[in-house]
Structure formats: structure tokens, C-alpha cells
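Worked Example 4.2. Consider the chain below.
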Amino acid sequence: MELSCLKQAVPLFITEISPPKFRGGLNICFQLLITVGILVANCVNYFTSNIKNYGWRISLGGAAVPAVILLVGSFAIVETPTSLIERGKKEKGLKTLKRIRGVDDVQKEFEEMVRATEVANQIKHPFRELMKKPSIPPMICGTIIHVFQQFTGINVVMFYAPVLFQTMGFGSSASLLSAVITGTVNSLSTVIAIFTVDKAGRKKLLVFGALICMVAQVIKYYEQKLSTTLD
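Applying the procedure from the previous section yields the following C-alpha cells:
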């Protein structure tokens, strides 16, 4: 539950404090840190797997390190300017925006935030707005993207990679090493997305990623079909 809350709150926080031209890349940095975390966890598991009796304790206890960093860091996080403006604290919101941007000339951006907040506050029943005709296409699109992302099985592969590789016949060490390789590819792919999303656009990246996924699935299908025929 805590992880789900973080996955909702952190992208929103990044969106509200980041400059518009870097917003896409900075948002993907959140995903990058998740992939790096998975990679680090796989590396720790790989190296501690050879430690008898208490290797699993090191692996399990290591998860406390990022948790402590997150806890301590959360006390240093400032409120976003948009959140402050929405709650009527405009002066504090302006001060925070200047602090985040590192300059005093932020009046134009601040006024845009105030206008956007005023427009948002005029919507009394946001869930009813989702049911109106103009809102239905983006709502359906945003929903099915996440649904089909889960249907690809990527979460299962990332979180249960060692177990999956063992069911394929890999040994214990080999399955952990394969999980490290998978995590490395995942992290590198995320880095590419960071530097291209604000230039190429989100739609092009989505289409390109979907095509790669489709090609991989087709190749896997025919590989299994060929393997069954040879058997």
C-alpha cells in the first residue's frame, strides 16, 4: 500500500515542481530510480547468495537502507507552489517557487499557476467531468495503457525474474545473474527515454515501445511454435 501511495504522490510532486520543458524527463527519472533499485536489489541478491546461513539476512536487511534515506529525505522536502496556492498561501507559494527555480523572476510562471488553480477550483464535481464526452477518450486511453502494460507481464518478469529463470532450467546463480542482466537493460532503456521524451514526444515513444513489445511477442510465439514442432 505504501509503495502504491508513493507511485502516485511522487510523479505528481515532480510534475508540480519541475519546469515545463523538462517535465517529461524528470518524471521518468522517478521510473529510472525504480529500475535502478530493482537492479541493485538483484545485484545484492546475486552476491549474497553465496554467503551461507546469513546471506539472505543481508539481502533482506539491505532493504532498510533506502527506506531510511526516504524517511530522512521526506523531512527536507518542501511543499509544492501549486499546493500552497491551492490552500490560499500565495505568498509562501511564490517564495517556494523562487527557491525551487533559484531566481527571483518567476512572476509569469507564478501567475500561470494561480490561474490554473483558480480554473481547477471552479470544477465542483471532477468525477462527473470524467463522464462527459470530451473527457472519455483520454480517460479510456490512460486506463487501457496501464491495463495492457500489466498484460505484457513485465511486472512479473521484473519482480520474480530469478524464480522465472529457475523454472526455465537456470541454476540458482545463473537465474540471479540473468535477473541482473534484465535489470541492467531495463535501466538503460529508461535512461534513453529520459533524454528523448521531451524532444521526440510521449506519443512517439509510446508507439515505438509498443512496436518493440509486439515484435518481441511475435518472435517468442513463433519460437515456441517451432520448439513444439521439433519436439
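Residues 98 and 104 are 5 Å apart (CA to CA). The radius of gyration is 22 Å. Compare this with Example 4.1 before moving on.
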